[in-house]
Amino acid sequence: MAESKSTLIARSVQKHAGRAKEKCSRWGVGTQRRVQRLPPMILQNLGKVDRTSDEIFEEHLQNFTRQQNAANRLQKEFNNYIRCVRAVQTASKSLLDSLCEIYESGWTGHDLLYVQAQNIEMLWQDFNHKLGDQVLIPLNTYQSQFPEMRKKVDKRGRKLVDYDSQRHNYQSLQAAAASGTKKRDENKISKARDTLEEAKRTYEMLNSELHDELPALYDSRALFLVTNLQTLFAAEQLFHSETAKVYTELEAVVDKLATECQRGSYTLKKNNSSPKSAIINNMNSSITSAPHSGATTDNLPPGVLYRVKATYKYNREDVDELSFDVGEIVRVVEYDDPEEQEEGWLMGIKEGTGEKGMFPANFTRPL
C-alpha cells in the first residue's frame, strides 16, 4: 500500500510537471530547465526519491559560507572606517587652517606653525592613500572571489538535481519494464541511460572541482588576514608616530609663546588696567639698572644697586632666570652684558642662596 501511494504521488507530480512544461515551452531554455527540476526536488523534499548526499562537501560549504560572511563584514566595516578617517582629515585641516589665520604674524613661531600644519595635511593624505591602495584594494580583491564561487556552488546544486532526476527516471523505466506494467522499450531505456551518464559526468566534474577549490579558498583566510592587518597596523603606527612629532613641535611653539606672554612681550599698556597690571606697566616703563626711586642704597655690598622684596611667586621659565617665593629678598645688580638687558627685567642675586638670574621687576617692590 505504501508503494502504491508513492507511485501515485510520483505520477501526479510528473503529470502536473508535464502540463507546466507544455505551457512554458515558449518561455526559453532557462525557464524550461527550472520547471524540469521541480518534480525531483518536490519528491526529494517529500522523501519519495533518494537524494545524493556528500557530507564532506556540505562541511566545505559551511566553511565557505562563514568565510564569505566574515569577508563581507570586514569589507563593510573597513569602508566605514575609511569614511570616518577622511572626515577627521577634513576636520583637522579646517581646524589648523583656522589656527593659522588667527595666530598673529608678530607672534613667535608663526611661520613654523604654518609649516607644521602643512606637514600634518601631507601625513593625512599619505595615510589615506595607504589605507585605500594597500588595504582596501586587496580586501576588495579577496572578497570578489566569493560571488563567483557561490555561482559555481549553485550550479553544482542544479546539476545534482538533474543527476538525481535522470537517475530516478532511469530507475522508474527499469522498474516498469521488470514488473510488466509497461512494454519494455529498449530505445527509451538506452536513451535514459545515456542522459543519466551525461548528467553524472557533469555533476561529478563540478563536484570534484569544488572539493579542491573550496578548501583552498578557506585555507587562504588566515594568510590574507595576517597580511592585510600587518599593512593596516603598520600604516597606523607610522601615521601616529609622525603626527606625534609634529604636534610636539607645535606644543613647543605654544610653550614659547606662553613664556613670552609671561614676560609681557605682547602686553598692551593701558591706564585703566587692573592694579596688578598697573604695577607691571609702571615698573616696565621706569625700571632700569640704576637705583630705583625710593630704594635704599645705604650699607649695600659692593656691586649691589638696591634690594627688592618679592610680592608674587615666580617660577623661572629658562635656565638664566631666577625663581623666588613671596617675601624673599633679591639684591639687584648690573647685567654682565648691558646688551642682554630687557625692558621690565632685572638681574639679581637671591639672599640666602646666592642664586643669580633675571627676574620680572613687576613681581617685586624696592626696599
UniProtKB/TrEMBL annotation:
<dbReference type="GO" id="GO:0012505">
    <property type="term" value="C:endomembrane system"/>
</dbReference>
<dbReference type="InterPro" id="IPR004148">
    <property type="entry name" value="BAR_dom"/>
</dbReference>
<dbReference type="GO" id="GO:0005886">
    <property type="term" value="C:plasma membrane"/>
</dbReference>
<dbReference type="GO" id="GO:0005737">
    <property type="term" value="C:cytoplasm"/>
</dbReference>
<dbReference type="InterPro" id="IPR036028">
    <property type="entry name" value="SH3-like_dom_sf"/>
</dbReference>
<dbReference type="InterPro" id="IPR001452">
    <property type="entry name" value="SH3_domain"/>
</dbReference>
<dbReference type="InterPro" id="IPR003005">
    <property type="entry name" value="Amphiphysin"/>
</dbReference>
<protein>
    <submittedName>
        <fullName>Myc box-dependent-interacting protein 1 isoform X4</fullName>
    </submittedName>
</protein>
<feature type="domain" description="SH3">
    <location>
        <begin position="303"/>
        <end position="367"/>
    </location>
</feature>
<feature type="domain" description="BAR">
    <location>
        <begin position="42"/>
        <end position="263"/>
    </location>
</feature>
<dbReference type="Pfam" id="PF14604">
    <property type="entry name" value="SH3_9"/>
</dbReference>
<feature type="coiled-coil region">
    <location>
        <begin position="182"/>
        <end position="213"/>
    </location>
</feature>
<keyword id="KW-0728">SH3 domain</keyword>
<dbReference type="InterPro" id="IPR027267">
    <property type="entry name" value="AH/BAR_dom_sf"/>
</dbReference>
<keyword id="KW-0963">Cytoplasm</keyword>
<keyword id="KW-0472">Membrane</keyword>
<dbReference type="Pfam" id="PF03114">
    <property type="entry name" value="BAR"/>
</dbReference>
<dbReference type="GO" id="GO:0005543">
    <property type="term" value="F:phospholipid binding"/>
</dbReference>
<keyword id="KW-0175">Coiled coil</keyword>
